[in-house]
Design brief:
This protein has 407 residues and is mainly alpha-helical. Helices cover 50% and strands 9% of the residues.
C-alpha cells in the first residue's frame, strides 16, 4: 500500500504572532500522523509559497518545503517495509531515543492483521509476550548473543520445546533484520550467526502412526455421520491428500480440483512465496472422493468451498477461529478413537501429516518427492520434519550386517 506525504498548515492553535505550525503529514493504511517542521506561517503566506509572485523570504521557505518532501520520500523509498516506528527513527534521528522492541513488535503485528495474516499475527503476539516476560521494556541495543543464550536457557527451564523457542526467535530475527535495513540497528550488531548465536531447531519425534495403527484406524467402525465418523474421515482426508493441513482443507475450493487431482497452494506460504508459489498436487483416491461426496458442498461451483466450514466474506480472524475449533473438535474425537482401538500416542490432526510423510519415507520415497508433496521450500526442511526410521526396520538392517558366508 502506498505511503502518502504532504505538508499541512495546522490551524488548530494560533501562535501569538498570528502564524500556525507547518507540519509533515504521513498517511499509511488509513492512519495519519503529523510531524513538526520548525516552519510557522500565516495562512495567506502559505497560499503564496508555491506561487511565482512570492517574495524572497517565501521562496526560501518553498526551498525548505521541497527539501523536506524530498528527504521524506527518499527515506520511505529506501525502506523495505514501511512502519511509522521505523520512519520516525530515521526522520527524527536528532531526537531519537532507544527503540523499544515492544513497539516494533506491535507495529508489525498490526501490519500482519491488516494483511489478513491472523495466524502469523498470533504467533508474533505469543513471541512478544514470552520475550517481555523474560526481559520487560527491552531495547533493540540489548538484543545480543548473550541475551539470546540467556533467553533460550530461561525457556528450557520452563519446559518449553526447542521448536517453540525457534518459532519465537525467528520472529525476533525478522524484526532485527528489518531494523538493520531501516537503519534502526547497526549491521555489525547482528546477533544471529554461526559465530554468535544460532536459533535451535526442534526435532519432531514419533508423531506419526505405524502402518499397522493406520490399518486399525481405517477399519475401525463408527456410526454413520457421528462426530467420531466425521473426525476419522477428515483425519484420513488429510493423510491421503499429502498430509494436507486442516486450514488448507477448510479453504479448498472446487476450482482446485482438476480431473483426478487437487492442486493447491498452502495458505501458510501465500504471503511469503508470491513471486514463486509452490503448487502442491494430490491425487484424489476413492476414499478421498467418498469423503468429499459425504461431507462436501452439494453445489460444486468453482468458487465454492468443497467443505462448508468457511463462508463467503469471512474475516481472517474468524477464519482462524473456525479452523482452531474444527481441529479441537477433531482431536477430541480422535483421542476417543485412540482409547477405543488402543492406538498409543497423540492421535491428532498433526499426526496425519507426519504419518503421510514418514510412511512414504519408510516405503522408499525420495526426500525430493516428499518435499514436493508437503510443499516445503527445501529438502533440509523435509529432513528435519521426518521421523527417524522405526526400530524394527533398524533391527532388520542390523541383521544384514552379518549375513555373509563363512570364508
Amino acid at each position: 500500500m502506498k505511503v502518502l506525504t504532504a505538508l499541512y498548515l495546522d490551524k488548530r492553535r494560533k501562535k501569538s504572532d498570528g502564524t500556525y505550525p507547518l507540519k509533515l503529514r504521513i498517511a499509511f493504511q488509513k492512519e495519519r500522523r503529523y510531524y513538526a517542521t520548525e516552519i510557522d506561517l500565516r495562512p495567506e503566506d502559505w497560499q503564496k509559497v508555491n506561487s511565482t509572485s512570492s517574495n524572497s523570504e517565501l521562496k526560501k521557505i518553498r526551498g525548505k518545503t521541497i527539501q523536506i518532501i524530498q528527504e521524506v520520500d527518499g527515506i520511505i523509498r529506501n525502506m523495505t517495509e514501511f512502519s511509522f516506528l521505523s520512519f520516525e527513527s530515521l526522520y527524527l534521528r536528532k531526537e531519537q531515543k532507544p527503540i523499544g522492541l515492544e513497539a516494533v513488535f506491535k507495529s508489525h503485528i498490526s501490519l500482519l492483521s491488516q494483511q489478513g495474516r491472523a495466524g502469523t499475527a498470533e504467533s508474533y503476539t505469543n513471541a512478544l509476550s514470552s520475550i517481555l516476560s523474560f526481559r520487560p521494556a527491552i531495547q533493540f541495543e540489548e538484543i545480543t548473543p548473550a541475551f539470546l543464550n540467556e533467553y533460550e536457557s530461561w525457556m528450557l527451564k520452563r519446559k518449553r520445546s526447542l521448536s517453540t523457542i525457534g518459532i519465537y526467535l525467528r520472529s525476533l530475527r525478522t524484526l532485527v533484520n528489518t531494523a538493520i535495513e531501516n537503519g534502526v540497528m547497526k549491521r555489525e550488531d547482528y546477533p544471529f550467526s554461526k559465530r554468535k548465536y544460532q536459533i535451535p531447531v526442534g526435532r519432531n519425534i514419533k508423531k506419526s502412526l505405524t502402518k499397522e495403527e493406520i490399518a486399525t484406524l481405517y477399519y475401525y467402525s463408527t456410526p454413520e455421520f457421528s462426530p467420531k465418523d466425521k473426525a476419522r474421515d477428515f483425519w484420513f482426508f488429510s493423510y491421503l491428500a499429502n498430509g494436507m493441513n486442516f486450514k488448507d482443507i477448510c479453504r479448498l475450493k472446487f476450482e482446485n480440483i482438476h480431473n483426478d487431482t487437487i492442486v493447491f497452494q498452502r495458505a501458510k506460504t501465500i504471503n511469503t512465496r508470491r513471486g514463486n508459489p509452490i503448487q502442491i498436487v494430490a491425487v484424489i483416491t476413492e476414499d478421498m472422493q467418498r469423503i468429499m461426496n459425504k461431507w462436501g458442498n452439494p453445489d460444486n461451483h468453482p468458487s465454492n468451498n468443497v467443505f462448508n466450514v468457511f463462508y463467503n466474506g469471512i474475516s481472517p480472524l474468524r477464519e482462524r477461529q473456525l479452523v482452531k475449533q474444527f481441529i479441537k473438535v477433531t482431536n477430541k474425537w480422535m483421542q476417543e478413537i485412540a482409547k477405543d482401538t488402543g492406538i498409543k500416542g497423540n492421535l491428532t490432526t498433526y499426526a496425519a501429516r507426519h504419518s503421510f510423510s514418514t510412511i512414504q519415507k519408510n516405503e522408499g520415497a525420495s526426500i525430493q518427492y516428499i518435499k514436493e508433496c508437503l510443499g516445503h521450500n527445501s529438502t533440509q526442511t523435509t529432513e528435519n520434519y521426518l521421523n527417524a526410521f522405526p526400530d524394527n526396520m533398524k533391527r532388520q538392517f542390523a541383521q544384514h550386517l552379518t549375513t555373509f558366508k563363512k570364508p
